[in-house]
Amino acid sequence: MQIIRDLPALRKAVAGLKKECGKLAFVPTMGALHAGHMALIAEAGRKADHVVASIFVNPTQFALNEDFSTYPRREAEDMHMLEKGGCALLWAPDVETMYPPGHSTTINVTGVSDGLDGAARPGHFTGVATIVYTLLNQVQPDIALFGEKDFQQLAVIRRMVRDMDLPVEIDGVPTQRDADGIALSSRNIYLSKEQRIAARALPRALGEAAKAIQEGGDIREHTERATDTLRRAGFDPIDYVAVCDAETLESLTSLTRPARILAAARIGQTRLIDNLPVIPSV
Ligand code: AMP
C-alpha cells in the first residue's frame, strides 16, 4: 500500500493507478478504523479494481465544544488494517495541505443539511461537504463509498454530487453493528461498561418504533415512545428522534414514502447517532 501525504505525490500515484486501467473506488475516513470502515473498504474492493482510502480528522466539522483534539488517532493500526483489507493507496494529508493559508471556499448544501444533526451541530455539514468535495477533487475516483451509519451525511453528499455534477458514483453501505446491536463507531471507546449496556436502548428503541410505524402505527406516538425509552435508559440530552423522507430528510408525519427513523442523543459525554429504514407497505 502506498502512503501519500502531499498533493504532487497523490496526483502522480492516482495517474499511475488510472493508467493501469480499471475503476478506482474511494473511502474517506477520519481513522480509528473498525469493522464498519472495513466493510466500506471490502465493498469498494468488490466494486472497483483499486481502492483508495483517506485518513483526515477534519477540524472544520467539529464545533469548538466538540472532541477534535481528543478524537482517537491510531495511524499505525489503521495502516495495518487498510493494507490487510487490500487498499492500494492511503491518502493521509495534514491540515495545512487540506486548508492552505488563506483557504476561504466552503460548500454549503442547504435543505438536507438544515435539520437533525445540522441543527444540533451548526456548521458541521458545511465542514463535511467542503472536505468531501476537496477529497473527491484530489482523488478523482469513479466511485466513493459512505456508511448509512451517518445517514444525513450520505444524503448531503448525494445532493452535493448531483448539484455540482461531480463525475462520481456515490454508494451507501449498510450500518455494521456489534453483537449487542450498537452501531460500530470510533466514539464507542468513550463509553464506560455501564454506559455501553445502557446504549443498547438506542438501536432497540429505533427498531421497535420502525416496526410499529411500518405496521401502520402513528409516527408521533412512536417517536415519543422511543424518546421516553432513551430517557429512561439514561440518554440526556436527546437531540432528536425523527422520521424523515429517506432522500430529502424532510420530516414526515405519515408514512407516505420510503423513510428513515433517525436519532442522536448523549450518554454521559458521548454523543451517539443511529438510524434505520422505515418502508411503507405497498
Ligand atoms: P468516520 O471515520 O467516522 O468519518 O467514518 C468514515 C466512513 O465510515 C463514513 O462514511 C461512515 O459513515 C462510515 N462508517 C462509520 N461507522 C460505520 C458503521 N458502523 N457501519 C458502516 N459504515 C460506517
CATH topology of the largest domain: Rossmann fold
End-to-end Cα distance = 48 Å
Ligands, ions, cofactors: adenosine monophosphate
Helical percent range? 25-40%
Query: How many separate helices?
Result: 10
Strands of the widest sheet, in order across it, are: 1-4-3-2-5-6
Content-based structural category: alpha/beta
CATH architecture of the largest domain: 3-Layer(aba) Sandwich
Tell me the radius of gyration. Answer: 19 Å
Shape: globular
CATH structural class of the largest domain: Alpha Beta
Summarize the structure.
The chain is built from ten helices and nine strands. The protein has helices at residues 7-19, 35-47, 75-84, 95-98, 116-120, 124-139, 151-163, 193-198, 201-214, 219-233; strands at 2-4, 24-29, 50-55, 89-91, 143-147, 169-173, 238-245, 259-267, 270-278. The strands form two sheets. A six-stranded parallel sheet has the order 1-4-3-2-5-6, sandwiched between helices. The chain has a three-stranded antiparallel sheet with strand order 7-8-9.
Which keywords apply here?
Rossmann fold; binds adenosine monophosphate; Pantoate--beta-alanine Ligase, Chain: A,domain 2; 6-stranded parallel sheet; 2 domains; 282 residues; alpha/beta; single chain
How would you describe the overall organization of this protein?
The protein has 282 residues and is α/β, with parallel strands linked by helices. It has two domains: 2-173, HUPs (Rossmann fold, 3-Layer(aba) Sandwich), CATH 3.40.50.620; 186-274, Pantoate--beta-alanine Ligase, Chain: A,domain 2 (2-Layer Sandwich). It has ten helices and nine strands. It has helices at residues 7-19, 35-47, 75-84, 95-98, 116-120, 124-139, 151-163, 193-198, 201-214, 219-233, and strands spanning 2-4, 24-29, 50-55, 89-91, 143-147, 169-173, 238-245, 259-267, 270-278. The strands form two sheets. Strands 1-4-3-2-5-6 form a six-stranded parallel sheet, sandwiched between helices. Strands 7-8-9 form a three-stranded antiparallel sheet. The longest helix is centred in the middle third of the chain and has 16 residues, at 124-139. Bound molecules: adenosine monophosphate. The site of adenosine monophosphate has 17 residues, from helix 2 and strand 5.
